[in-house]
Amino acid sequence: MNKKYIFVTGGVTSSLGKGIISASLGLLLKAVGYKVTIQKFDPYLNIDPGTMSPYEHGECYVTEDGAETDLDLGHYERFLGISTSQDNNVTTGRIYNNVISKERKGEFLGKTVQVIPHITDEIKNSFYKIGKNNSFEIVITEIGGCIGDIESLPFFEAVRQAKFDLNRNDFLNIHLTLIPYLSTSGELKTKPTQHSVKKLLEAGIQPDILVCRSEHKLSKEIKNKLALFCNVSKNSVIESIDAKSIYDVPVLMRDERLHEIVLNYLNIKKKKPLRLSRWKNFLRNLHSSNNILNIAIIGKYVSLHDAYKSISESLIHAGANLNSRVEIKWILSENLNEKNIKKSLKNIDGVIVAPGFGERGVEGKICAIKYVRENSIPFFGICLGMQCACIEFSRNVLGHKKGNSTEFDKNTPYPIIDLMEEQKEIKNKGGTMRLGSYKCSLEKGSHINKIYKNIDIKERHRHRYEFNNSYKKEFNDNGMLTTGTNNKLNLVEVIELKNHPWFIGTQFHPEYRSRVLKPHPLFISFVKKIKSIKNG
Ligand code: GLN
């Protein structure tokens, strides 16, 4: 079978959920027996989202091989249970960077370097690069942004050209669009979609399938009208009605027979019957449980929930798995202090202190950790959250009143958290942290060892600072145990508190490895403990 390429484009407005539609289609195609991967092309000029504020871009998702990527890659991994890589997220910045460095090497042999063909060739090479990997049969490519955006033009041109590179049955375009509802007249309107498809046609792309986001069901008349005006066959107009949760979308797409229409276009057959029983089981648990657990996520970007997407999704996976519903309480760390902490954490069953960078809000996080440590409230610190737990312990248990991380106080007399040796010479900010998957050995018999049921684990990282080993003995002697270590680099990766129901901090980010059908053991254990304390 030839490699099949499906391009997912968007129109009318951004944020319609191209990532979720791509992930849902990927899941359905995988469920009928195909090996699928998904990649995302982003039109912005940053080389990757690693240097962007979460307020600009939401969470930065980190792959196994250490790429800092768009949060949609998290959806792809969580829905499909696959691992993505450096090659699954490409930006305009990366494309231009590659072309310009080839130009400097003289690789264009005296030619004038231009958007067409040089930039579009580079884009197409990236489209196909992942397809050259023989482990995939179908490559879904999501084009970020909307048709009509100036900055996405070269990507659309490359999609147009791809149609000519590939055989008729190996190329497919799915266009995701919005059908707005006018409440005053009670009507769904097709005009924005018509215009968006006209724009796509101007770029030389005729969509094969329209997926129409809508608050209300699309009548047959509306679907027929869309088909007629947009040159799409009637059965290829798919409705994507607002769902209860992102996890309901694969089932809605299955009901709309999206996968069958796609298989038909690609001229391939199901390799096995579609069964979504485990997924539906998850959905049943997700929606039916009345056992509510209130878990706080304390961070500095909480007004944008997407900034902590993988953490909140990991909690949802674990909650559903344990027949409970996790209600996340978002708490802005800079609002917390000794005076209001008790009130702020009232009715909170467990606390996660989130990853982050920079000083703002750190004292609030430390204050919350003191409270949960002293009041036996389950605590999970991730990356900066773990570092804050170490600072708190040094100040309030070991008595190092000015204990700190050198990230926040360069001259602290007690540098509990310090810059990693190999980071000291690094000047560039982009792509230079300790990134991606590293081995970690867990202390036999420790709490975390019991959770993983393993000694050797691998988890993903994204940080520059580390636990300062000169405090290791003092911490262990006083009840804060360092129970996970990267032996090769001699770095502390896990801390846990003795005599506390659940108090663990990890330098790594377990949230990047939680999957819908395979929740992460740390999140399961954390939620399980909270549930057992709450239900007595
Ligand atoms: N700012 C801290 C560091 O660089 C923590 C990073 C994080 O939480 N991802 O080490």
Short recap of the structure:
The protein has 536 residues and is an alpha/beta fold. Helix content is 35%, strand content 23%. The chain contains 18 helices and 23 strands.
Question: Strand-residue fraction?
Answer: 15-25%
> What coarse outline follows from CA principal-axis ratios?
globular
Biggest sheet strand line-up:
13-12-14-15-23-22-21-18-19
Average pLDDT for all residues:
95
Overall number of strands: 23
Defining key terms:
536 residues; alpha/beta; 9-stranded mixed β-sheet; globular; binds glutamine
Topology:
Blueprint: E1 4-10, H1 18-31, E2 36-42, H2 54-57, E3 61-62, E4 68-69, H3 72-80, E5 89-91, H4 92-104, H5 115-129, E6 138-143, H6 153-165, E7 171-179, E8 181-182, E9 187-188, H7 191-202, E10 209-214, H8 220-230, E11 237-241, H9 249-255, H10 258-266, H11 277-288, E12 292-299, H12 309-321, E13 325-332, H13 341-344, E14 350-353, H14 362-374, E15 379-382, H15 384-396, E16 403-405, E17 414-419, E18 434-442, H16 447-452, E19 456-463, E20 465-467, H17 472-477, E21 480-486, E22 491-497, E23 503-506, H18 521-534
Helix pairs in contact: 1-3, 1-9, 4-5, 5-6, 11-12, 12-18, 14-15
The structure holds glutamine.
Residues 355-357, 383-384, 387, 407, 462-465 line the site of glutamine (GLN).
What can you see in these coordinates?
With 536 residues, the chain is of the alpha/beta class. It has 18 helices and 23 strands. The strands form 5 sheets. Strands 13-12-14-15-23-22-21-18-19 form a 9-stranded mixed β-sheet, with helices on both faces. It starts with a strand and ends with a helix. The site of glutamine (GLN) has 11 residues, from helix 15 and strand 19. Glutamine binds at residues 355-357, 383-384, 387, 407, 462-465.
